[in-house]
């Protein structure tokens, strides 16, 4: 199955080209996708995900043609 993956700035997944469609296995969660690409579970607590612009937990099971956007929250004043 194919999903589109996009991520911003400080979140750099070196094994995936940003803003591209990639092949993934069926029944894969966002968390497992991140683990497969070198982001340990411990570091995932800082990552937020949306699927087609709707916030989803990292336990979300990816579906064919999903558009996944990953980002790190930024705060300031």
Q: What does this protein structure show overall?
A:
This protein is mainly beta and 77 residues long. It has a single domain (2-71), classed as Ubiquitin-like (UB roll) (Roll), CATH 3.10.20.30. It has one helix and five strands. The chain has one helix at 30-36; strands at 2-7, 20-23, 48-51, 54-56, 67-71. The protein has a five-stranded mixed beta sheet, with no helix packed on it. Strand 3 (48-51) and strand 4 form a beta hairpin. The longest helix has 7 residues, at 30-36. The chain is globular and about 40 Å long. The termini are far apart. The model has no long low-confidence stretch (mean pLDDT 92).
Give a quick precis of the structure.
This protein is mostly beta strands.
Number of H/I helices? 1
> Per CATH, which architecture?
Roll
Strand order of the largest sheet: 2-1-5-3-4
CATH class: Alpha Beta
Share of helix, binned: under 10%
Q: What layout of secondary structure does this protein have?
A:
Elements: E1 2-7, E2 20-23, H1 30-36, E3 48-51, E4 54-56, E5 67-71
Parallel strand pairs: 1-5
Antiparallel strand pairs: 1-2, 3-4, 3-5
Provide tags for this entry.
77 residues, mainly beta, Ubiquitin-like (UB roll), 5-stranded mixed β-sheet, 9% helix
């Amino acid at each position: 199955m194919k999903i589109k993956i996009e991520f911003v700035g400080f979140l750099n997944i070196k094994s995936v080209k940003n803003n591209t469609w990639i092949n993934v296995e069926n029944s894969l969660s966002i968390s497992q996708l991140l683990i497969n690409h070198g982001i340990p579970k411990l570091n995932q607590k800082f990552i937020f995900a949306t699927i087609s612009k709707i916030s989803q937990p990292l336990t979300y099971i990816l579906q064919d043609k999903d558009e996944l956007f990953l980002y790190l929250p930024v705060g300031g004043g």
